[in-house]
Amino acid sequence: MNYKYTWSASAGNRRLTPYLSLLLITGTLLFLSSCKEKKNTFEQKKGNSPTTVDVMIAKAENIGNQVEVNGSVVASEFAELRPEVSGLLTFLSVPEGALVQKGTVVARVNSADLEAQVSKLKVQLELAETTEKRLKQLIDINGVNQADYDIAINTVNGLKADIQYTQTLIDKTVVRAPFTGIIGLRRVSAGSYVTPSNVIATIQQLSQLRIDFTVPESYQNYVPKGSNVQVLLDQNTGKRLSARIIASEPQVNQSTRNLTVRAVLNGGTATPGSFVKVYLNEGAEKSSILIPANCIIPEAKSKKVVLVKNGKAMFVNVETGSRQEEYIEIIKGLSVGDSVVVSGVLFARQDAPVTVRSVRDVKVVSK
Q1: What is the mean pLDDT of the chain?
Q2: Strands 354-360 and 51-57
Q3: How does pLDDT run across 34-81, given as a tens digit for each residue?
Q4: Is the distance from CB of 86 to CB of 195 less than 8 angstroms?
Q5: Which region holds residue 207: left if phi is over 0, alpha if psi is between -120 and 50, else beta?
Q6: How far is residue 261's CA from residue 271's CA, in Å, rounded to a whole number?
């Protein structure tokens, strides 16, 4: 009896299995359906909730109206040392990176043939001068024609000119430092055949550095000769030095519409060719509304900022002025006391409700 009962119970379980499986599947589908409905309902509620933003209260700040432009460091004197004649380098003295005095011989080109030519001309000149002296004695007693004496004089003068010309060619074979300065890297070796197109080395005078920079033509009235500008040599230290404007190009570049200006740096050291920042002072300090630059929403033909009024976001058009590091001047569109959205700008929508999380204080440093 136990054996039959066990077998029948097992069979009963087998018959109930399909019904239990169907019941479990149906329950699972109903549960998932209810969860999905709840999730959609939650997202819909979240979409209607106010956007959380941070704002700043627009206020007038006294700022120095400065313009920032790019510039480069230029040596007070710069030259490429080249030979004036072609030939073999017989002497080369280039102390790389060292200070050399004006007139120091840096290189010599082989001039043996020219020196031999000078020796030959001197012998001919000696003979021509002897002949001229003899004819001079004869011309005094009418012993020779005046034309013969004139030919002798002309021969002497011609030989002297040839000697002077050849000596000039010999002088051109010597390369000297044109001024006192730091000599650069050597570009040729002794024994090389050089031409005037070859650069032996460069030399720069670093005693009084200059700053070259360009400004838009609209700012040319702010860079008069003799005025001072501020120069930032090292971005890490942030220290600015003064430079005095000594000259500017007489005309504006027609391609870029910029004016090139040169100033002399008052102290400081830098490597010629280095990038620097130049700050021009447009005038006295003025009162302006400044906001962070990331608050601006650029569009095709306008710029906008987001304000908070009556708990809703409002987009307004603004006109911007000069930019000062991380901040930008607002010329038109904002009033003192307006609540400007500084974070959460991308999530704000016109006339949509917003919640102000905090009010930030933007500190503007006058420079």
Answers
A1: 82
A2: parallel
A3: 444 333 332 333 556 888 889 989 888 776 667 788 999 999 999 999
A4: yes
A5: alpha
A6: 19
Overall pTM surpassing 0.85 (yes/no): no
Phi-psi region of 224 (alpha: psi -120 to 50; beta: other; left: phi over 0): beta
Are the CB atoms for 69 and 215 separated by under 8 Å?
yes
Confidence of residue 11 (pLDDT cuts 50, 70, 90): very low
- What angle do the packed helices 112-140 and 146-172 form, to 10 degrees? 160
Higher pLDDT, 40 or 103: 103
Compute the distance between CA of residue 278 and CA of residue 326 in angstroms, rounded to an integer.
17
Q: Tokens for 158, please give them.
A: 């011609």
Q: How far apart are CA 344 and CA 359, in angstroms?
A: 13
Going by pLDDT thresholds of 50, 70 and 90, the confidence category of residue 142 is confident
The two counts, helices (H) then strands (E), for the chain are 3, 23
Nearest to 305 by CA among 278, 331, 271, 276: 331
Separation of alpha carbons 18 and 12, rounded Å: 11
Quick one: CA dihedral 234, 236, 239, 240, positive or negative? positive
C-beta separation of 342 from 55 below 8 A: yes
* Strand (E) or helix (H) holding 323: strand 312-324
Task: Return all residues near 86 (Cβ < 8 A) that are at least 6 apart.
Answer: 109, 193, 194, 195, 196
Beta bridge partners of 315: 306
Q: What are the tens digits of pLDDT across the range 223-244? A: 889 999 999 988 778 788 899 9
